[in-house]
Amino acid sequence: MSHLEPEAKIFACSQSVHLAEEIAKNYGIPLGKVTFSKFSDGEFQPSFEESIRGLRVFIVCSTFPTADNLMELLLMIDAAKRASARHITPVIPYFGYARQDRKDKPRVPIGAKLVAKLLETAGATRIMTMDLHADQIQGFFEKPVDHLFASTIFLPYVKSLNLENLTIASPDMGGSKRAYAYSKFLESDVVICYKQRKAANEIGSMELIGDVKGRNIVLVDDMIDTGGTLAKAADLMIEKGALSVRAICTHAILSGDAYEKIENSKLLELIVTDSIPLKKESNKIRVVSCAPLFAEVMHMVQHNNSISGKFLM
Questions:
Q1: The Ribose-phosphate pyrophosphokinase N-terminal domain covers which part of the protein (predicted)?
Q2: pLDDT (tens digit, 9 = 90+) per residue, 222-269?
Q3: Residue 107: is it exposed, middle or buried by C-beta count within 10 angstroms (0-12/13-18/19+)?
Q4: Catalytic residue numbers, as ranges
Q5: Does the model's pTM come out above 0.85?
Q6: Calpha distance 304→146 (Å, rounded)
Q7: How far, rounded to the nearest angstrom, does the alpha carbon of residue 155 sit from its chain's CA centroid?
């Protein structure tokens, strides 16, 4: 090991161990040892069980609920800082609170900005994440942010399907930019769903902008939470004459009765990454691992190589 280039170590928060193990395997090093002591009231304390002095430390942690995940990450960053790690990079495949990226009504917080500040205050020197709900969240950080796109792993899968009359669709107006980026790469048409919400996670009405008749549709979104939007969009498209409807969603939150909605919908399959572990198996859900992508970019960051080639979108 040269003095100019310290080696890296990869650690995991308790809910992201499986993904971290896959990332470490792809990176080519064993996952670092960390233990969590619990007090009887539920409070916990992480402890690095090996020296990290002067090293680059990657801490893999998707910050999905409960808030303990975020708290674990913050405590581990603080522990790494106090153990004299040289670089501390939280690897956050799913960045929680990203939907709170602006004030959409009076007297509400901007949660994504608060989380960014918490991570930096704890001691993060660089952030690595994937498919943020809103690109501008990168600007909430004063530190470098490597914002990876899951399109680099989804696009080869979509191409391998060899679908005729392929049309990319966005389930809402906000995702139209993402849909256009996919369609440009796949040289396909685009359809946009226009929906009006009654309340958060509850759809009032939905209409299609574009023609789906006789076409194989691939819906593209950054996350799937309750599954209501995608199920409704798929059913509407089949009703309007689509041959098949698939969906690509980076982050499988799948809360409430989302699994039932997916099973009962006209969706042929739902393709997701392992940024969030699935709560249960489903024969309609296919998982494509993001571990090789993260491992490769982490390797590039560690060896100061350009990562711009990893951005297809």
A1: 9-123
A2: 999 999 999 999 999 999 999 999 999 999 999 999 999 999 999 999
A3: exposed
A4: 195
A5: yes
A6: 13
A7: 16
